[in-house]
User: Which sequence fits this backbone?
């Protein structure tokens, strides 16, 4: 089986699993990940205090670097931190960043 796990953490509480899905072992990592992200972030919204002001941040590895996941996070109002694949286009983009930037 291939698992997706959604965890929420704060500076004041231990991490808590708020979403989990099992998929067939042959399923690619990003399969239905956009829907999973939307569901997990909807749960965060429901559980979050009305007075909460902290940043909601989705963090994921490069397997989830795609439109479905990023757009689901943006629709939910979350910021995104996803590792990018180091393909030639990404390497070229990184090379254009000055060392002092």
Assistant:
């Amino acid at each position: 089986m291939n698992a997706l796990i959604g965890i929420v953490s704060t500076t004041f509480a231990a991490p808590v699993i708020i979403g989990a899905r099992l998929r067939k072992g042959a399923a690619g990592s990003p399969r239905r990940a956009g829907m999973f992200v939307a569901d997990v972030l909807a749960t965060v919204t429901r559980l979050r205090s009305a007075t909460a002001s902290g940043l909601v941040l989705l963090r994921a590895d490069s397997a989830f670097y795609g439109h479905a996941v990023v757009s689901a996070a943006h629709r939910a109002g979350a910021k995104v931190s996803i590792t990018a694949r180091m393909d030639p286009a990404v390497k070229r983009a990184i090379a254009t960043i000055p060392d002092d930037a």
About this structure: The radius of gyration is 16 Å. The longest helix spans residues 33-47.
